[in-house]
Amino acid sequence: MPIADRVGVIETDALVIGAGPVGLFQVFQLGLLGIPAHVVDALPVPGGQCIELYADKPIYDIPAVQVCTGRELVARLLGQIEPFAATFHLRQTVVALAQRRDGRFDVETSSGQCFVSRTVFIAAGVGAFQPRSLKVEGYERHLGSQIFHDGPDAALLAGQRVLVLGDDDAAVNTALDLANADAAHRPANVTLLHRRKLLTAETATLSRFQDMCNAGALHFEVGQVLGLEEASGTDPRLAAVQLIGEDGQARRIAVDVMLVRLGLSPKLGPIAHWGLAMARRQLMVDTAFFETSTPGIHAVGDVVSYPGKKKLIVSGFHEATLAAYAAAARLRPDEPVLLQYTTTSPRLQQRLGVSARVG
Ligand SMILES: Cc1cc2nc3c(=O)[nH]c(=O)nc-3n(C[C@H](O)[C@H](O)[C@H](O)COP(=O)(O)OP(=O)(O)OC[C@H]3O[C@@H](n4cnc5c(N)ncnc54)[C@H](O)[C@@H]3O)c2cc1C
């Protein structure tokens, strides 16, 4: 069935794929030009690499911001786009993008949400962030029932033997939270498993973890997962994890639930199949309009390639600005797109919701 005939399809002037720093600034530049946007991201929260890879680390090269963390930068970008009330569609990956006969674009996400958009902005960075999984036989079979990347509800873990995989703050805090749960929600036992003794979580988190291990409330195992064991031929439930320890000895840990917290890895995935010109897995764009080989589909930020490209946030901000102007010309062909300053333009100030303050 054509997308436009489906129930729940959203028609829009602009769809931004990716809510990283550049996708967020794209929303701002579009908003200034009076173009509201919908934004899709695979992650549960906006922020892209800034949130996923260095939320609490400092950034020093954002113009006029001496220093801020990844998280602070994202909060500022979100604050800046507030007047434009963009609609976010999170936890879903854009899986299909195709041009219709009328020149608009059909876009579909992994959740089945469909859009028909007049312009598209690919701000997909290094790709959609997906949870890292284990490459062992049977993993997919138990995913969602006994193996979880996200969640599950704490109530489901009460009285269970829980194995947490990972070494960073997310993994260690998951183990700590479970061991500290109230009696009604507490698992029977909680073990953190990592392939090396060294964990990368923050010092304060590790110190709490050590205390809990010393008190016998948590267990720590060092080893590499070799396979999964099911209860029996007739009972296919996950029953144990087989591993090889640092000492080279094979061992098994009985489990009811495995929480995999191995971090996220970006996958360019479907973008490579949308028929857009690419070079070394990046989208080729012209540098006047930041448009791909398909007019109406713009691309900005880390996902693009052009002579002299630098994968920096500030470069993405410039790219988003030019892409927005180009899209405005496409969306309103009869209106000249004039350069206006936020300092002096009553129209821009009205869009920003600051007219009264300026007076
Ligand atoms: C450790 C580290 C430190 C850094 N420090 C600096 C610094 O100090 N200064 C600086 O300028 N730069 C820095 N960078 C680089 C900077 O983070 C990137 O240039 C910037 O994040 C690019 O922004 P983006 O919006 O293009 O992409 P990203 O931040 O990668 O965001 C892309 C978003 O698109 C989503 N996405 C991708 N494909 C899809 C899809 N098909 N469907 C739905 N969603 C999708 C992803 O989930 C992601 O959220 C640093 C990078 C790292 C790793």
What does this structure look like?
The protein has two domains: 3-130 and 265-358, FAD/NAD(P)-binding domain; 134-262, 3-Layer(bba) Sandwich (FAD/NAD(P)-binding domain). It is 24% helix and 28% strand. The chain is built from nine helices and 21 strands. The strands form five sheets. Strands 1, 2, 5, 6, 7, 8 and 20 form a seven-stranded mixed beta sheet that branches. Strands 10-16-11-12-13-14-15 form a seven-stranded mixed beta sheet. Helix 5 (169-179) links the parallel strand 11 (161-165) and strand 12. Helix 1 (21-32) runs parallel beside helix 3 and helix 1 packs parallel to helix 7. Bound molecules: flavin-adenine dinucleotide (FAD). Residues 17-23, 40-43, 48-50, 53-54, 59, 61, 93-94, 123-129, 270-271, 301-302, 311-314, 316 line the site of flavin-adenine dinucleotide.
Radius of gyration: 24 Å
Helix count? Answer: 9
The CATH architecture of the largest domain can be named as 3-Layer(bba) Sandwich
Mean pLDDT: 94
Query: What fold name stands as the CATH topology of the largest domain?
Result: FAD/NAD(P)-binding domain
| Separation of the first and last Cα atoms | 52 Å
Integer tally of domains: 2
Ligand inventory reads: flavin-adenine dinucleotide
Low-confidence stretches: none
CATH H-tier superfamily of the largest domain: FAD/NAD(P)-binding domain
CATH class label of the largest domain: Alpha Beta
Summarize the amount of helix as a percent range.
10-25%
- Biggest beta-sheet profile: 7 strands, mixed
Shape: elongated
Oligomeric state of this protein: single chain
Order of helices and strands: EHEHEEHEEEEEHEEHEHEEEEEEEEEHHH
Number of E strands:
21
